[in-house]
């Protein structure tokens, strides 16, 4: 997700997003030329023209550079900006798919590279599960406010974990099955529809 002047974030937050994006671009450029395991924090910092401590501050776990959005803050802000009476599931569908569309349009090659690494490197896949859970916790506050509940309510936690987990699984499925950029958003939609209705039964021959 790109930081833009019209986003509901402060100037300081937008500057942080730009720094994160610069670090990510530098890392992806390096990984396009060499193995991920051989890519060091020092190399990434030099390519991004920041200090290694800055890279570590923004991305304490190296795999986060590949997997973290440009900021869960922005995702949360956009979720809070959705219409108050909108179904929470549709609100999450909208903000996530809008973010994915924007990223695919802005940096399709980076998306494909991250998808390949997600399939090839177990540490990246494992970290994806962890960051998805962290994002779900972040968004729980926004969902709680929209529904008049507490962020620690079981229903809120289960809902956010289920939706974000389904979207993660759809992303992994896409990464494993051809990685055509045109397929990702429809697969995310299918994941949300499955949460709503469950898998349709197929007739036996």
Automatic annotation (TrEMBL):
Q: Does the keyword Transmembrane apply?
A: no
- Which residues belong to any copy of the HTH tetR-type domain? 17-77
Q: Which residues bind DNA?
A: 40-59
Alphabetized Gene3D superfamilies for the sequence: Homeodomain-like, Tetracycline Repressor, domain 2
Keywords for the protein's UniProt record, in alphabetical order:
DNA-binding, Transcription, Transcription regulation
PROSITE patterns associated with the record: HTH_TETR_2 (PS50977)
Asked whether the keyword DNA-binding is assigned, the reply is yes
SUPFAM superfamilies per UniProt: Homeodomain-like, Tetracyclin repressor-like, C-terminal domain
Q: What is this protein called?
A: TetR family transcriptional regulator
């Amino acid at each position: 997700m790109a930081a833009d002047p019209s986003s509901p974030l402060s100037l300081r937050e937008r500057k942080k997003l730009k720094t994160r994006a610069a670090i990510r671009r530098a890392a992806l450029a390096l990984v396009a030329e060499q193995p991920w395991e051989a890519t060091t924090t020092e190399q990434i910092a030099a390519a991004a023209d920041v200090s290694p401590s800055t890279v570590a501050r923004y991305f304490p776990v190296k795999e986060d550079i590949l997997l973290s959005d440009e900021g869960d803050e922005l995702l949360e802000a956009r979720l809070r900006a959705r219409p108050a009476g909108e179904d929470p599931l549709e609100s999450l569908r909208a903000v996530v798919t809008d973010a994915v569309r924007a990223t695919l349009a802005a940096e399709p090659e980076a998306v494909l590279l991250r998808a390949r690494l997600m399939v090839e490197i177990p540490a990246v896949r494992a970290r994806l599960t962890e960051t998805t859970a962290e994002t779900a916790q972040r968004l729980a506050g926004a969902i709680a406010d929209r529904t008049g509940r507490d962020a620690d309510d079981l229903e809120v936690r289960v809902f956010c974990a289920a939706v974000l987990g389904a979207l993660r699984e759809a992303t992994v499925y896409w990464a494993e099955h051809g990685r055509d950029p045109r397929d990702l958003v429809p697969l995310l939609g299918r994941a949300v529809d499955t949460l709503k209705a469950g898998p349709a039964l197929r007739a036996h021959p």
